[in-house]
Amino acid sequence: MEERYPVIAGAEEFFYKGNKIGILISHGFVGTPQSVQFIGETLAGYGYTVLAPRLPGHGTHHHDLESATYEDWFRELEKGYQFLAQQCSVVFVIGQSMGGTLTLRLAHKYPEIKGIATINAALSLPAFDYLKEQSTPRFIPEGEPDIKDRGVYEIAYTQTPLHAIHQLQEVMASTPKLLSEIQTPILCVKSSVDHVVPPENTDFIYKSVRSKKKRLITLANSYHVASMDNDKEFLVEQLHDFVQSQLIYELVASY
What we know:
single chain; alpha/beta; Rossmann fold; 35% helix
């Protein structure tokens, strides 16, 4: 899709060139790479090559988001994966909220991905259920980001297009049927309190994937946007440990 508005300062894609271990990070619905900046910077500090694309229609203007489809979002993440796969010997993928949904779809399409991590991945958003059959209003007011740490600022729109919500609902509805075919090692992360995506979404993902190596952890002091919340340091430690555990497993298995 073609965007008509400039990117908001601070919402740009980011890339850190490091070693041959690539990490792709996807932000969520109406979010931007800014929401996963701390994760990306910290993982880059460990030496990884890190890329966080900006999904089409995000981080510019809500009119751009109105023109986007979930296929546009997936293609952008897929393009990021293909770029890292050319740069690196192995690639891991991390996705938050809808980014977690897209990550699952990417793992289904590319089973060679070494590992994935979902953070409060979205398969349902009860607050939007009443909009499924609606054609109006054109835009829905956005509330404050669901972050427990009140000192955090997330770049976000004040309105969300109904069309974009329908696209989100479509990708959430079509993803569960793929889970039983996913065997990629996975780290499933959920917040104990999430006012946007029910934590049961993550429980369902954990139980449904066929991955032999899978782990479920709960964040006790964060809400939905966990990448920016009180547990973000612990979250990055867990992500780093997950990557390292997969690399060690691969090394041992090669002998």
